[in-house]
Write a structure and sequence with these properties.
The protein is of the alpha/beta class and about 210 residues long. It contains two helices and twelve strands; from the N terminus they run βββαββαβββββββ. The protein has two domains: about 10-120, no CATH class; about 130-210, no CATH class.
Amino acid sequence: MTIGTIAGVGVLGVVAGAAHADARIDWATGFVIADGVGVADRHAPSPAVARGTSRRGAEEAAMKQIAALVPTLPVATGGTVGDRAKLAAGVTLAAEPETDGAWRVTVGVPIEAIRQAIDGPRAWTPSGGGAAGGDVGPAIVVVRVPRSITVTPAVGWRIAGQAVATLFVGKLPAWVDKATPVVRVTRATRGELAIDKPAGNASTLFVVAPE
């Protein structure tokens, strides 16, 4: 699915393959996600007791799918995550117990955690502004991609020379308000987006969307 000039996986991409058939990449929320089911132990004395082991089984089943998918994620500068880093830890996003003691869970690995596994954690400075200015600056910046420029969702896009957190969306989510700074991509080279004016820093979330 292609979203405007953001090509490739689109807002929600599913990578096929038996080992991770139910795992999926959600570039718009910034997670690699999978569902898992933990079957209840029929020999447990009660459903409450069975849930202890079935929850772990459900989470392990989901992580197994994610572990197969994450290494295949594209990196903006070329290659895949599997060439650069090991799997980041997952978090349980949703969990639903069944009456018989089984669990159904949704587990996700943040794409930003994968990026930091490759680039390392950002350096923080206690004062100042701009790229070296700690957390001074906007929390969110919208990055508009013109129709003439193609940007494929990938891990590790740098924006104006900075290693930053990114989301790739087809349309802006409701939590982006009219006061959010907006910049425009002027060039997309190997792993780097040039923008028309300085905006944000390493603590900013850059939301990339087509014009």
